[in-house]
């Protein structure tokens, strides 16, 4: 008995575009309702969708009901504290307004991966998209999205291209580094987290304060992830240098790893080295020593992001900026420096 024939490949959005004689973005615009398409082109797209049986279930419901109410959150991470809590804020505000939320994880900034994720999102009955621009993946997603889709960017610095909510990380980092200098440290070493651009606001604020104070500006140490493990080896290296007395880490998890590495190198925190983080992770308060950091209200950030998206859906498409300043949280991991071998009183 001959083997059964393989089932036909389901039609893709590209197939619909070819059959209708239009571009893929035109098909997306018909599916999302994000911008007007001429009646003639719209009918050709709908006819091609019907002929090819192109029926993602969410899109099918949208074509029947006319409702395009989903909010997509596009992000590279869902486990890291700042990402997950921001997503929670978006979801809470969107659900209260009657909008279901879909999370789209973009695993890398590879153009094919970004394009695939964008095309999948554009097939949904979208009201709009929130992009977490905390890293280079978020930047790539924003660059790949069609200009006619309602979008809000969430990040630590403003660029003026989109309606955007930001936490002023440069000013917060500057305050944190200034606090360490005021404690009497000669300079502050910096362990950066993976940036969204060449130099993020946390690093820029650190550098600005050191230069203004005439303090030495050490080479930046770059963690290879946002996790604590990425800080351990860096902490051991910094601990081998007796001149290191203060370290500013790009987030709290990396700071926890740096503390572990310093201790493995025989350095005590804060007796020998002060270590500060960023974000105010839920574990920062219960860590020993309690971690000095800056608090970022990520949940409110997500809520504000949906607020800007809702304003767009109501007709306001201006590149609005909503900014907030994180605040310094002083705990036990930072203290004035002591001379080598001198006990702390």
Automatic annotation (TrEMBL):
| InterPro entries reported for this sequence | HTH_LacI, LacI/GalR-like_sensor, Lambda_DNA-bd_dom_sf, Peripla_BP_I
- Which key words tag this protein in UniProt? DNA-binding, Transcription, Transcription regulation
Cite the HTH lacI-type domain residue spans from the record. Answer: 11-65
Question: What Gene Ontology molecular function terms does this protein carry?
Answer: DNA-binding transcription factor activity; transcription cis-regulatory region binding
Would the keyword Oxidoreductase be found if you checked this record's keyword annotation? no
Q: Does the keyword Protein biosynthesis feature in the UniProt annotation?
A: no
Q: What is this protein called?
A: LacI family transcriptional regulator
Q: Which organism is it from?
A: Cellulomonas hominis
């Amino acid at each position: 008995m001959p083997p059964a024939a393989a089932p036909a490949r389901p039609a893709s959005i590209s197939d619909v575009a070819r059959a209708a004689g239009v571009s893929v973005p035109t098909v997306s615009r018909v599916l999302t309702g994000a911008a007007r398409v001429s009646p003639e082109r719209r009918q050709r797209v709908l006819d091609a969708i019907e002929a090819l049986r192109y029926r993602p279930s969410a899109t099918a419901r949208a074509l029947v009901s006319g409702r395009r109410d989903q909010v997509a959150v596009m992000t590279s991470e869902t486990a890291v504290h700042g990402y997950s809590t921001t997503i929670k804020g978006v979801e809470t505000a969107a659900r209260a307004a009657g909008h279901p939320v879909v999370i789209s994880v973009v695993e890398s900034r590879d153009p094919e991966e970004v394009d695939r994720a964008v095309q999948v999102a554009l097939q949904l009955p979208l009201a709009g998209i929130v992009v977490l621009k905390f890293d280079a993946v978020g930047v790539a997603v924003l660059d790949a999205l069609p200009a006619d889709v309602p979008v809000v960017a969430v990040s630590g610095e403003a660029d003026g291209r989109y309606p955007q909510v930001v936490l002023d990380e440069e000013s917060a980092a500057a305050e944190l580094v200034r606090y360490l200098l005021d404690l009497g440290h000669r300079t502050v070493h910096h362990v950066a987290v993976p940036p969204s651009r060449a130099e993020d606001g946390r690093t820029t604020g650190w550098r600005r304060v050191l230069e203004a104070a005439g303090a030495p500006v050490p080479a930046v140490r770059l963690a290879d992830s946002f996790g604590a493990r990425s800080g351990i080896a860096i902490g051991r290296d910094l601990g081998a240098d007796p001149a290191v007395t203060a370290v500013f880490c790009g987030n709290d998890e990396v700071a926890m790893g740096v503390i572990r590495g310093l201790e493995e190198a025989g350095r005590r925190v804060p007796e020998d080295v002060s270590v500060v983080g960023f974000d105010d992770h839920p574990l920062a308060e219960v860590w020993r020593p309690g971690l000095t950091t800056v608090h970022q209200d990520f949940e409110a950030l997500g809520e504000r992001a949906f607020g800007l998206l809702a304003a767009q859906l109501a007709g306001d498409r201006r590149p609005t900026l909503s900014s907030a300043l994180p605040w310094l949280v002083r705990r036990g991991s930072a203290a004035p420096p002591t001379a080598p071998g001198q006990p702390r009183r």
